[in-house]
Design goal:
By secondary structure, the chain is of the alpha/beta class.
């Protein structure tokens, strides 16, 4: 598992640094390195954009040189525009954020994600010194993202490397037992009899119900609820005088 740090080179807008710090906090990262940063005092807009990262990630950021990153980390430079040509070796080949995640998950290396300046990003000379290039797929008509947005997208895609547990509940879906599902199909067939459903449409409707539930993988509770709906409809039909109960 990679130990991932984030580095921002020569940012001009304090708010972008704050946004990146907030994205780091969202996705479980804490080590922020800054190369030639703007003013980031407590009264700067960086702290207004950082959210809860103003309490730890941002104030604990470390100012370093570009050389420090190259000498101490496996470096991934991010860039919006890539020349997909082996003659332009500084920017080729490149990985998307998803491909980068798949690559890093297989190795144990301290990795620095390096984000460049607003507007121009990292220079060709800087890109020539990093180990890998990462680029976010975007419209060819306008591929340049805001610095804070680009960093947040990359950090989101790498979240499986940095977040042990998210706020979302564990997605465990326990499908109803087959006998429960078959029991509902039997009830549904009886219901079609009960409402005198047209005989010529019955088999097609029964197959349709099987297709729907086959795709849905219903839980036991969902099957029980469907049974309850049919029973309720049957009771109302048998005792219309209770329709307002």
């Amino acid at each position: 598992m990679s130990d991932i740090v984030v580095a921002v080179v020569d940012a001009k807008t304090p708010g972008n640094v704050g946004t990146i710090a907030r994205g780091m906090k969202n996705f479980g990262l804490s080590d922020l390195y800054l190369v030639n940063p703007p003013y980031l005092g407590r009264d700067s807009e960086a702290y207004g954009f950082a959210g809860h990262a103003r309490d730890d990630v941002l104030p604990n950021a470390t100012e370093v040189s570009f050389d420090y990153l190259i000498e101490n980390y496996h470096t991934v430079g991010t860039t919006a525009v890539t020349n997909e040509d082996e003659t332009k070796h500084m920017r080729w080949p490149f990985k998307t954020p998803v491909e980068l995640k798949e690559s890093l998950v297989e190795v144990e290396t301290d990795t620095a994600l390096i984000f460049g300046r607003e507007g121009v990003g990292l220079t060709n000379e800087e890109l020539s010194r990093v180990d890998e290039i990462c680029s976010i797929p975007a419209s060819s008509k306008y591929p340049v993202l805001n610095l804070g947005q680009a960093a947040t997208i990359v950090l989101y895609e790498l979240r499986n490397l940095s977040v042990e547990r998210s706020q979302l509940p564990t997605a465990v879906h326990e499908r109803a037992r087959e006998d429960e599902i078959e029991g509902f199909y039997g009830h549904f067939d009886s219901f079609l009899d009960f409402i005198n459903y047209p005989a010529e449409k019955r088999k097609k409707t029964q197959r349709m119900m099987r297709r729907i539930l086959g795709r849905a993988h219903p839980t036991g509770r969902e099957i029980s609820t469907l049974h309850g709906i049919l029973r309720h409809a049957e009771q109302r039909a048998e005792h219309p005088e209770r329709a307002d109960d």
